[in-house]
Design brief:
The protein has helices spanning about 5-10, 25-35, 40-50, 50-60, 75-85, 100-110, 120-130, 130-135, 145-165. By secondary structure, the protein is an all-alpha fold. The chain starts with 5 loop residues before the first helix and ends in an 8-residue tail after the last helix. It is globular. The longest helix is centred in the C-terminal third of the chain and has 20 residues, at about 145-165. Helix 4 crosses helix 5. It contains 9 helices and no strands. It is about 55% helix and about 0% strand.
């Protein structure tokens, strides 16, 4: 983070080991700091809340009236609207909604009920193996680029090993 947030530390409540119950939640932390962050830092903070959005999407796909975790980045109304758009075959801008979630919802709606795929596993796989999330959040989760980089490194190491003269002892 390139911004300096000196006020943040001074504004946090005192915590001690003797506190039996923390009165300061993760949601409180986000509420307190969010408006003071730069846009890029807000996107980084939003990454921590994607797990709640993932769980909320799964709940709403199974039950339209399900109670969702309010710590997510999207409200129940927003998620329901996105699900409806995708159910009707529409598309959602990556600037509005993470691509990996759109892909998951579409896959979920097109997967037969007797499928043995665990939806939670499929959702996690899409998040961590695709470049979809960094389209919205500007964070590289790896995916194909990491695989290509590993292949290039492997090829460089292999070519260096081949270029070594094996007749000389290693000292």
């Amino acid at each position: 983070m390139s911004s300096k947030y000196y006020y943040l530390v001074a504004g946090l409540p005192e915590l001690s080991l003797e506190d039996s119950k923390l009165s300061y939640t993760v949601a409180d932390f986000k509420t307190e700091i969010y408006d003071g962050l730069s846009a890029s830092d807000q996107k980084l903070i939003d990454l921590f809340y994607l797990k709640f959005d993932n769980a909320n999407v799964l709940k709403l796909l199974k039950d339209k009236e399900a109670e969702i975790d309010k710590r997510g980045n999207y409200s129940a109304d927003e998620l329901s609207e996105y699900i409806s758009i995708l159910r009707e075959g529409g598309e959602i801008s990556p600037k509005e909604f993470p691509v990996y979630l759109s892909t998951f919802i579409t896959d979920y709606l097109n997967t037969p009920a007797e499928s043995t795929v665990l939806h939670e596993d499929h959702l996690a796989c899409l998040l961590y193996t695709s470049d979809a999330a960094d389209d919205l959040l500007c964070v590289d989760f790896g995916g194909p680029r990491v695989i290509k980089k590993k292949k290039k490194i492997h090829q460089r190491v292999k070519s260096r090993m081949n270029s070594l003269d094996t007749s000389e002892p290693i000292t």
